[in-house]
């Protein structure tokens, strides 16, 4: 029982760290790309992962966490899949309108629920599904504008949805099945993610922007923002693995939409982005949906804990019954023997 409060504090800490770091890096990257003219998003992500690996390697050398020897084949495939997922999301953004890209991100939640239901036999209650629906409607109202379709963009979006969902589900299942922490899994998989993006990033960015990352003239201000972005990314990557490992891929996606709403709000207040009544209504509906989701999750977890405690109590009673029965028989036998001896 004493472990539950510490576990809940760990979950709250992971959620807070994920939100704070993700909102910070979005604002930093938006300033870097929009205001300073550095459009190389995929290449920047590869630098994020390399810095994350180097930071974790230094932490491991300082014995801040224990490196665990695990089967590298699933970890390598997992790292490559995540790297491909990031590249596909960036390509989807390049080939589609902003509105269709936001719809792609919204589709990740229902597709994750579908995959977990079909392949992991996980059950989602009607209340949870309702709260997710309200959330998606709110985020859609707040962020989706135009929906311009094209064949290549649609295919890329479908591939991005599939790889992202599978990657996030694997993040959770690998941690549990291989009995590794979020830090250990990130440490083992980060080099593979960085490698695939380091090779493909400049090509993807040049294809999308018609600019060469190696020919870009780096000013001291741009370098400062790149370094800041890489530092924040360590916290983003670490918290992502923590949240998925401690909760679920669906909860992580719900958290992602909270970040979207916060980014919209910060963009309006700090970067003076255009903001309409539609954005406000959408954010309020999305927050209401997140509140419902959190409430129903807490209620279902309490119910599950209550059932688990009841079953544990029944098992304890069942285990203790034969012993009590044997004691009663021994007492009865001793009483009969004593009576017999007294009669003699």
From TrEMBL:
Residues 21-294 form the Sugar phosphate transporter domain. It is found in: Membrane. Keywords: Membrane, Transmembrane, Transmembrane helix. It is a multi-pass membrane protein. The chain crosses the membrane at residues 38-59, 75-93, 132-149, 155-173, 216-238, 277-296. One of its GO terms (cellular component) is membrane. The keyword Transmembrane helix applies. Pfam families: TPT (PF03151). This is Sugar phosphate transporter domain-containing protein. It comes from Populus deltoides (Eastern poplar).
């Amino acid at each position: 029982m004493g472990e539950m409060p510490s576990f809940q504090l760990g979950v709250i800490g992971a959620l807070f760290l994920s939100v704070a770091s993700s909102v910070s890096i979005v604002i930093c990257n938006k300033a870097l790309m929009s205001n300073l003219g550095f459009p190389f998003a995929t290449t920047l992500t590869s630098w994020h992962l390399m810095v994350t690996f180097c930071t974790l390697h230094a932490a491991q050398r300082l014995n801040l966490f224990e490196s665990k020897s695990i089967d590298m084949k699933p970890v390598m495939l997992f790292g490559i899949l995540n790297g491909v997922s990031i590249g596909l999301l960036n390509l989807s953004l390049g080939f589609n309108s902003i509105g269709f890209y936001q719809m792609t991100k919204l589709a990740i939640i229902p597709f994750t629920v579908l995959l977990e239901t079909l392949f992991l036999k996980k059950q989602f209650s009607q209340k949870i599904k309702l709260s997710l629906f309200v959330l998606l409607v709110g985020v859609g109202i707040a962020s989706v504008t135009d929906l311009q379709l094209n064949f290549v963009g649609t295919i890329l979006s479908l591939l991005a949805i599939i790889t992202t969902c599978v990657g996030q589900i694997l993040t959770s299942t690998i941690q549990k099945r291989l009995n590794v922490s979020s830090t250990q899994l990130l440490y083992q998989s980060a080099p593979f993610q960085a490698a695939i993006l380091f090779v493909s990033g400049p090509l993807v960015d040049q294809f999308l922007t018609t600019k060469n990352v190696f020919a870009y003239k780096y000013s001291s201000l741009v370098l400062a923002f790149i370094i800041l972005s890489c530092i924040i990314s360590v916290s983003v990557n670490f918290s992502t693995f923590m949240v998925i490992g401690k909760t679920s891929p669906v909860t992580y996606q719900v958290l992602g939409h909270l970040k979207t709403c916060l980014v919209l709000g910060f963009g309006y207040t700090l970067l003076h982005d255009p903001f309409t009544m539609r954005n406000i209504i959408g954010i309020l509906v999305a927050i209401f949906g997140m509140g419902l989701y959190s409430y129903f999750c807490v209620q279902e977890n309490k119910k599950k804990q209550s059932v688990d405690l009841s079953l544990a109590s029944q098992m304890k009673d069942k285990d203790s019954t034969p012993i009590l029965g044997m004691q009663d028989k021994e007492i009865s036998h001793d009483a009969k023997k004593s009576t017999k001896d007294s009669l003699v």
